[in-house]
């Protein structure tokens, strides 16, 4: 047929439980083209890719609207297997490699070349022997295509991360019918030189006629590699353009967009009390997936400081590290006094309180009553709400009840009473219980991670209002970590953007969209310093 | 050619940390090494004639290896130690009771038993597999508890249902009240039916084995060089193996000519051949598509699923194979013992097989044929010498008895603990 486009996704819409995550997105990819897909976390990129791959999660939540035309024919993809059969391949962000296998075995995973033996003729296909020689040859060929000099018989365990990525790619291009290859943030885990090799390999693959969909946050890679750029924001298609027609600045601006809504919070006029309450020096946290690689930060008394950035860059790790939940090193000083790291109890005793991002996992005892949830940490760490009988301390029921009732009233927790179990509460009210527990510790600093994740819009505003109220009326210092830049900009005094485990820059909430976009893409320092030199 | 390069390269890399490597090998095999030492001490203390120990050992290894080998495939498929081989043993016993009832004797009886137990074992294995798929991550404890549960049903069947619902009139088997099977059954019909087909003295076996293996090596090499025209990749390996086999043959020949007492050790050749075939089967299956799927699932279930492998199905197949092998293994065990303890023979099967495998140096994630055979030899050496050693050392044979059950359970516990500990260390390494 000589199709002009390999993939066309028309007017794709998708709802998750009444929440529209894709609002009529169009995407067109031509053969041999490198097409970059840009967007913040939650912009709908992964949902779009899940639809393309027919992931079960799409179909178990009611399917989607719209049309997919692949290679000239409309298709309805029901499972990843179908997508693979059609010739759509995916290079996963987290590697789908088996460490104990050789590179060949990984490349040929479940596509092994087999030959007959006396048993297989009788007992069926499954007992065919593996043709290791042929498999090695094929693997070699795929690796050569990528220009990688690693030996195919080596075990994947112990390979440098960069090579693992190439093994993953080799697996995809080894499939003979490959027509479209999706790269999901392939350079996120790579060092710069490795990333360059990868981008060169991508161009090679594209030159052989395979179309490439390239999901990334790094704008310079887009500029150096892509032919076309599509930008999504909040489930909407913002722009599709040729690379030549755009600039890094424009891309950054389009990615973030203006969506800030002030929460009736006027800028604090009294800037005299710039007293440092906490000093973080070279903090490193080994939280898997959210590694922090050395952060210096000063937190002022009475401010709301926001920690923003894309998922996986390390912003979540900071609070978790300070609270001793993940192995950390470095120095954290509270009012000039050192806090012992890697010891949650020490952190709690220093009157630091933490509202975890994992509300239902770490945050709450789901099958326990509201009142117990509110007092439990204070009970454990500070021995409050206890009647002391030597070894046999007992919970002080009366004091607990009084305190819980007060909290329920103060924070406006909608419930049937202090004894209701927290599992039955709505997300927003669960979050308020978490905050209530943190407040019970009478904290110096309140760490709040992703306070609005998984909460409906109305409740989001209530939670944010509550944080502002605590800050304004009680003068509480709040460190808020959030993936939603909009909400950080609406309530924070300063926002530190974290990229690759480090602080990219600290911005005022009023800073421009482009600045935020650049910071989140990790380009702020580079570009701004250049400008400074030029001007 | 590339293979040769590999060798050179790895050697170059290895040389600097040769000591480290040796240390690592020592650490990895610490369990078997420890047990070899314990066994040697036991042998010394027991002061039993070596001929007796050897005779006993041959009998026990021939009797027990098969069932230990049955554990390997589930480990390969990442399901840990399949304690539910108890169900396979039950299938074997159900068949053997039926065959004793029908009075089919000799080899015919044995073959009937094998045929009869297989469908039972397949059904039991299928159900076990289904259950284990529902409890991923807790396969070992599930299979263990499943064994206890199945034991209850087994007792119900033979204590109550036989003679009431299942009509059976056989005064030899059924209790005098007419309901329930007797506690011990004499298996005269199938006793030694496999072992006694063909027995050969140990020395002759060694000669035959040595000659056969050397012949196979040469033919294989010739096939490689002349018919397939490919260069032998690893000449040294060939030579070493051929040398070992030749040495075995020569030693056999030498002993035979010295009129030593060891000429009296008789080996049940057919049983050993059957065990050898099972080993070959295990080797074979690893090299097939199915084997690759076992390994993939064993290494990472999620990745296996994403690459289109039917994970649940593969796991069920692994358990079915294991259960069927266990049933056959129990039959081999019983034909050698000669009496069936109706309500007890199967109970400890899972425990002792697992203990043997672990003593051989296996872990819950890695097990090989070598581990299984080595473990069986060590565990049973210990069993043979420990009563006498206990008596000589402390004046009481019971101490030795205690010691061996202590060892069996202890080694399982320690091995599981070690496994968890390694896991923790690894995950810690990852984060820091």
From TrEMBL, chain A:
UniProt-listed Gene3D superfamilies: P-loop containing nucleotide triphosphate hydrolases (3.40.50.300)
Listed InterPro entries: AAA+_ATPase, ABC_carbohydrate_import_ATPase, ABC_transporter-like_ATP-bd, ABC_transporter-like_CS, P-loop_NTPase
Residues annotated as domain ABC transporter: 7-259, 271-525
Superkingdom, natural source: Bacteria
Keyword set includes Nucleotide-binding: yes
Keywords: ATP-binding, Nucleotide-binding
Signal sequence extent: none
GO molecular-function term, one example from the UniProt record: ATP binding
Record protein name field: Monosaccharide ABC transporter ATP-binding protein, CUT2 family
Source species of the chain: Geosporobacter subterraneus DSM 17957
Automatic annotation (TrEMBL), chain B:
Keyword field: Cell membrane, Membrane, Sugar transport, Transmembrane, Transmembrane helix, Transport
Coiled-coil intervals, chain numbering: none
Cell location: Cell membrane
Taxonomic superkingdom: Bacteria
Membrane topology listed for this record: Multi-pass membrane protein
Gene Ontology MF terms in the entry: transmembrane transporter activity
InterPro entries linked to this entry: ABC_transp_permease (IPR001851)
Sequence intervals crossing the membrane: 25-46, 66-92, 104-128, 140-160, 206-226, 238-256, 262-285, 316-337, 349-365, 372-390, 402-421
Stored Pfam families: BPD_transp_2
Primary location group: membrane
A single cellular component GO annotation: plasma membrane
Entry annotated with the keyword Transmembrane helix: yes
Ribonucleoprotein is among the record's keywords: no
Name of this protein: Simple sugar transport system permease protein
Organism: Geosporobacter subterraneus DSM 17957
Taxon lineage: Bacteria, Bacillati, Bacillota, Clostridia, Peptostreptococcales
């Amino acid at each position: 047929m000589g199709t002009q486009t390999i993939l066309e996704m028309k007017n794709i819409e998708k709802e998750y439980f009444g929440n529209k995550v894709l609002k009529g997105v169009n995407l067109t990819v031509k053969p041999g083209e490198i097409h970059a897909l840009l967007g913040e976390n939650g912009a709908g990129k992964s949902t779009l890719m899940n639809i393309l791959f027919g992931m079960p999660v799409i179909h178990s939540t009611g399917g989607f609207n719209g049309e997919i035309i692949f290679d000239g024919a409309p298709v309805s993809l029901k499972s990843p297997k179908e997508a693979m059969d059609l010739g759509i391949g995916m290079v996963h962000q987290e590697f789908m490699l088996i460490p104990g296998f050789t590179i060949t075995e990984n490349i040929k995973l479940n596509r092994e070349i087999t030959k007959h033996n006396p048993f297989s003729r009788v007992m069926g296909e499954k007992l065919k022997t593996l043709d290791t020689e042929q498999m090695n040859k094929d693997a070699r060929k795929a690796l050569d295509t990528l220009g990688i000099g690693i030996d195919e018989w080596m075990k994947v365990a112990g390979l440098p991360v960069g090579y693992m990525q190439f093994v993953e790619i080799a697996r995809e291009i080894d499939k003979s019918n490959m027509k479209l290859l999706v790269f999901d943030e392939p350079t996120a885990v790579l060092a710069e030189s490795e990333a360059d090799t990868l981008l060169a390999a991508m161009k090679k693959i594209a030159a052989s006629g395979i179309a490439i969909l390239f999901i990334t946050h790094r704008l310079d890679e887009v500029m150096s590699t892509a032919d076309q750029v599509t930008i999504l924001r909040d489930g909407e298609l913002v722009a599709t353009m040729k690379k030549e027609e755009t600039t890094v600045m424009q891309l950054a601006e389009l990615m973030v967009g203006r969506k800030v809504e002030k929460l009736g919070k006027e800028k604090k006029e009294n800037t005299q009390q710039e007293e440092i309450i906490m000093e973080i020096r070279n903090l490193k946290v080994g939280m898997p997936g959210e590694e922090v690689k050395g952060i210096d930060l000063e937190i002022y008394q009475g401010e709301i400081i926001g920690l923003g950035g894309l998922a996986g860059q390390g912003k979540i790790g900071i609070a978790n590290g300070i609270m001793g939940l993940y192995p950390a090193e470095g120095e954290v000083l509270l009012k000039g006094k050192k806090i012992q790291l890697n010891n949650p109890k020490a952190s709690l005793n220093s009157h630091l309180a933490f509202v975890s991002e994992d509300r239902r996992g770490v945050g709450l005892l789901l099958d326990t009553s509201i009142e117990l949830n509110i007092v439990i940490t204070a009970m454990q760490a500070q021995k409050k709400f206890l009647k002391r009988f030597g070894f046999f301390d007992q919970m002080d029921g009366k004091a607990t009840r009084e305190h819980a009732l007060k909290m329920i009233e103060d924070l406006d927790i909608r419930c049937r009473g202090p004894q209701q179990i927290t599992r039955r509460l709505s997300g927003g009210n669960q979050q308020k219980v978490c905050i209530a527990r943190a407040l019970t510790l009478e904290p110096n600093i309140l760490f709040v991670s992703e306070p609005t994740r998984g909460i409906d819009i109305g409740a989001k505003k209530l939670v944010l209002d509550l944080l502002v109220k605590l800050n304004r009326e009680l003068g509480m210092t709040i460190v808020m970590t959030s993936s939603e830049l909009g909400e950080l900009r609406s309530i924070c005094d300063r926002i530190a953007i974290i990229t690759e485990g480090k602080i990219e820059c600290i911005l005022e909430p009023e800073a421009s969209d482009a600045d935020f976009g650049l910071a989140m893409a990790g380009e702020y320092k580079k570009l701004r310093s250049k400008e400074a030199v030029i001007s | 050619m590339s293979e040769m390069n590999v060798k050179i390269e790895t050697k170059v890399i290895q040389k600097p940390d040769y000591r480290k490597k040796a240390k690592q090998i020592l650490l990895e095999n610490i369990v078997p090494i420890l047990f070899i030492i314990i066994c040697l001490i036991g042998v010394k203390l027991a002061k039993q004639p070596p001929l007796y120990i050897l005779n006993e050992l041959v009998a026990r290894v021939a009797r027990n290896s098969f069932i230990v080998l049955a554990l390997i495939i589930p480990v390969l498929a990442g399901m840990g130690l399949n304690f539910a081989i108890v169900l396979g043993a039950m299938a074997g016993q159900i068949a053997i009771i039926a065959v004793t009832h029908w009075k089919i004797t000799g080899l015919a009886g044995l073959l009937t038993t094998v045929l009869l137990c297989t469908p039972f074992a397949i059904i039991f294995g299928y159900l076990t597999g289904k259950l284990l798929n529902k409890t991923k991550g807790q396969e070992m404890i599930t299979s263990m508890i499943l064994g206890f549960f199945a034991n209850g049903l087994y007792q119900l069947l033979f204590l109550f249902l036989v003679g009431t619902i299942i009509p059976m009139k056989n005064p030899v088997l059924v209790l005098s009240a007419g309901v329930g099977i007797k506690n011990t059954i004499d298996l005269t019909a199938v006793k030694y039916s496999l072992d006694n087909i063909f027995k050969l003295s140990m020395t002759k076996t060694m000669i035959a084995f040595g000659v056969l293996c050397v012949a196979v090596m040469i033919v294989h090499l010739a096939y490689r060089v002349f018919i397939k025209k490919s260069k032998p990749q690893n000449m040294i390996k060939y030579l070493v193996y051929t040398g070992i086999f030749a040495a075995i043959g020569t030693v056999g020949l030498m002993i035979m000519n010295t009129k030593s007492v060891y000429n009296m050790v008789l080996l049940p050749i057919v049983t050993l051949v059957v065990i050898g075939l099972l080993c070959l089967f295990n080797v074979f299956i690893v090299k097939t598509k199915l084997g690759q799927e076992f390994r993939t699932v064993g290494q990472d279930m999620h990745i296996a699923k994403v690459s289109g492998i039917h994970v649940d199905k593969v796991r069920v197949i692994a358990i079915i194979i294991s259960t069927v092998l266990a049933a056959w293994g129990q039959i081999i065990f019983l034909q050698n013992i000669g009496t069936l303890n109706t309500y007890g023979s199967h109970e400890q099967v899972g425990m002792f097989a697992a203990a043997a495998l672990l003593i051989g140096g296996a872990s819950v994630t890695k097990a090989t044929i070598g581990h299984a055979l080595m473990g069986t030899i060590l565990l049973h050496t210990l069993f043979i010498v420990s009563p006498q050693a206990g008596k000589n050392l402390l004046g009481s044979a019971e101490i030795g008895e205690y010691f061996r059950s202590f060892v069996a359970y202890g080694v399982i516990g320690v091995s599981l603990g070690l496994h968890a500990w390694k896991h923790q260390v690894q995950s810690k390494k990852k984060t820091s």
